[in-house]
Amino acid sequence: MKPFLSILVGASLFSLSLFAAGSEEGFVSLMDGKTFEGWKASIDNTNTWQIEDGAFVTRGKTAHLFYAGDLAPFKDFDLKVEVMTETNSNGGIYFHTEYQEKGFPKAGFECQVNNSHTDWIRTGSLYGLVNIGLTHVQDYKWYTQEIIVRGSKVTVKLDGKTVLEYNEPAGVKMGTQYGRKLSSGTFALQAHDPKSVIRYKNIRVKKL
User: Mean pLDDT, the chain, as a whole number?
Assistant: First the structure.
């Protein structure tokens, strides 16, 4: 059985997202914009993550920043993150994952962040599972990346427009051709490589 997938093809979205957690009913902020309180970085490259103008910024070698606050774990949720990429940057937003000291997270799913990197798998993809080759948002412009998980369905929206829907087939198990299984866990942000500079801010979530 193949996973159900719909990808919407359309013009690139350029709108600047200015939503605040306080104005969205039921959403709770996961960052204060000033410190790393509630977050825990992997120990492989401890100088990669910085805070600039209220955003978590990747500037360095591969590392991941995991949410380690009291609201975890998350199963069904609506997650919204404001993201801005620079040219040739690669990153990602993980969900249903768990803290890992080194390397790329083995648990959970990665929702790709990549508008112009040499890797053709673009922003909004569920990396390695459902891959999108179209670029829907631009470098150097803030956009909202939204991930909604409800039961066996994952929906990804960019600036409010659905670009991906995935329905996990019944009976899917780890180690199958799909490689990932919906469960529960925390979130993580990816710093892919030293040349990838990405900003993540206004991270908020609503449990469903």
Answer: 88
Give the model confidence (pLDDT) of 82-91 as tens digits: 999 999 999 9
Query: In whole angstroms, what is the distance from residue 198 CA to residue 110 CA?
Result: 15
| Residue 11 confidence (pLDDT) above 80 | no
Global confidence as pTM: 0.87
| Number of folded domains that form the chain | 1
- Tell me, what DSSP letter sits at residue 130? B
With pLDDT > 90 as the criterion, what percentage of the chain qualifies?
81
Displacement of CA 192 from its chain's centroid (Å): 13
Domain that holds residue 39: 4-207
* C-alpha closest to that of 111 among 80, 151, 71, 76: 80
Strand partners, 80: 146, 204
How far apart, in whole angstroms, are the C-alpha atoms of residue 117 and residue 29? 29
Q: How far from the centroid of its chain's Cα atoms is residue 61's Cα?
A: 18
pLDDT over 70 percentage in the chain:
86
Closest CA to 111 of 16, 20, 37, 200: 200
Are residues 133 and 117 in contact, defined by beta-carbon separation less than 8 angstroms? no
Q: Which two tokens stand for residue 199?
A: 């900003």
Residue 77: CATH number of its domain: 2.60.120.560
Indicate the DSSP class of residue 73. -
What are the residues whose beta carbons fall under 8 Å from the beta carbon of 168, sequence distance 6 or more?
3, 152, 153, 154, 178, 181, 182
